[in-house]
Amino acid sequence: MEQNLVIGVDIGGQTAKCGVVDARGTVICQTVIRSDQHEAAEPFIAELAVALKRIVKEAGVEGRIRGIGVGAPNANYYTGDIENAVNLSWGRSGTIHFASLLKDAMDGIPVTLTNDANAAAMGEMTYGAARGMKNFIMITLGTGVGSGIVINGEVVYGHDGFAGELGHTTIVRHNGRLCNCGKTGCLETYCSAIGVARTAREWLDMSDTPSVLRSLENITSKDVYEAAKEGDELARKVFDFTGTLLGEAFADFIQFSAPEAIVLFGGLARSKEFLTEPIERAMNANVLPLWRGKVKLVYSSLKESDAAILGASALAW
Amino acid sequence: MEQNLVIGVDIGGQTAKCGVVDARGTVICQTVIRSDQHEAAEPFIAELAVALKRIVKEAGVEGRIRGIGVGAPNANYYTGDIENAVNLSWGRSGTIHFASLLKDAMDGIPVTLTNDANAAAMGEMTYGAARGMKNFIMITLGTGVGSGIVINGEVVYGHDGFAGELGHTTIVRHNGRLCNCGKTGCLETYCSAIGVARTAREWLDMSDTPSVLRSLENITSKDVYEAAKEGDELARKVFDFTGTLLGEAFADFIQFSAPEAIVLFGGLARSKEFLTEPIERAMNANVLPLWRGKVKLVYSSLKESDAAILGASALAW
To answer: Does A306 score more than 90 pLDDT?
Structure first.
């Protein structure tokens, strides 16, 4: 009998990555389309359906697609809708019945939708570092800080479908940085790629510590990482600070759901050589004794180029 | 056919409250025994079994007990053990196989064990203010701050059975109060009955604001409540401060599991006339816009004298 397959679609502000995936987590055919060329959702969905049918045909697997999983910002798992997604040119205002529209355009193949961090958690559980785990917290360290929480083997969606916004927990209670969400002191204003670059720039302005970063025009988190690798003191302290805040936040997350592990993914997680030690130190200093030294800190084991597609596809099984 | 019944046992440091409960949440027969008279667990469990058999006989319901639910400190739902319970004279060191020992002493009636706050959450869901809710967070405001988290209709136990220690999340990050757990700045050092009394005493020492509390030798949270009712400014500010910290903490809990409601129970929750406004204000100021004004704050609807027994009994269904 021929193996069942699924499709994973990861929708970001500029592009949508699409792939056909088998049960072992191999992306057997993939493509990327632009996601920022439309003001309305319907023409984008029509274009997406054309692209998906094309890769299914190219791979010669017509009739074997069991479902489509979609990771997208502001996606509601319960309703299949995308709601007020400010980062999507066609999703800014109101509610788009994305799952239902795509299902129709794909001749009835079932479509499941969730946000990117929840999709990443599904991906790690199905094919990656969290295989076999029933309780873990996925933290994505990208331009923002996202999260997907798994309890008893299931992603937590909560009462309304939007659970797991751990990037917006308050890590600096007074005089914290202003976040895009309108609040201040959110974890993601400090511990995202953007937050790391901002910390470096602030510290360079506030001190005269010598640093290779002083010669750069626009500092990115990658620059800070490169500088830290070269032994730059200030850059290393930026990572120490970032890791400490992450560890403090993780301690409270552990006290909530007692996970087996915290799983890290995303561009900033590549700096693990500078993040692991401060994270573990702060995490263990801020949890109850019963969890001290017991909760694992692990990094995604998925191939980075495939991870987004794999995460979305895992929803479809 | 005769109705099935369960037994609820709530074990505290001084007493164990026991009752026979029907499916509608009526305590049809109850008793209280001392829990602080033994250094070893076995003789306490033997005494408890005698007391339980006596109330079953008094109620004339022999043979109709379907299960026994026990709420106790440091109780592990997965294993049925009580582990290192410093507040129990017979539970201080090591592991007591409580569920299995009590089951044997009760001629094989199944015994389920969890901590008191999880039991309270089960009680609210089965008979109380959270009936019909599938996602809520129970916060018990007593001498400490406990919590029971319900997601998809089930209490969250986590990887090891100890999830839901929200009283030990850090609410004051720097120079916070020392907690019994060894950490500093834990929510329960500020927002428990003991924390409220401590805030009042600190503020009286640090200022010369006039207050009826100045005439008292040992201030309790009840004194602060009585003073607030009389219009005492300082006492009202203590509740405003306490409620604000609770609301800030609840905002982060909401961002974790997106509950339908936060349910409050315990001695301090009786001060709701002074707590509700600051809690709701701080909670709504610190959540993402999508939850603003949407998550309910509700108070336990169980009769206080029955609540502990009902909570424990709810485990047994």
So the answer is: no
DSSP three-state, residue B127: helix
Chain A residues with beta carbon closer than 8 angstroms to that of B170: 248, 251-252, 286
Residue B173 sits at the chain A interface (C-beta within 8 Å): yes
Interface probe for B, chosen from A250, A252, A294 (most Cβ of B below 10 Å), is A252
Nearest to A259 among B159, B182, B260 (CB): B159
* Global pTM value: 0.94
Q: Would you call A258 and B163 a contact, using CB atoms and an 8 Å cutoff?
A: yes
The distance of Cα A124 from the centroid of its chain, to the nearest Å, equals 11
pLDDT digits over A254-296, tens only? 999 999 999 999 999 999 999 999 999 999 999 999 999 999 9
> What ipTM does the predicted assembly reach?
0.93
* Closest-CA residue to A54 (of A18, A10, A104, A108): A18
Residue B242's pLDDT band, with cuts at 50, 70 and 90, is very high
Binary contact (A163, B256; C-beta < 8 A): yes
B161 vs A: CB within 8 A: yes
Strands of the B15-21 sheet, one edge to the other: B27-34, B15-21, B5-11, B65-71, B111-114
Q: How far is CA A311 from CA A53, A140, A215, A271, B100, in A?
A: 20, 12, 39, 22, 42
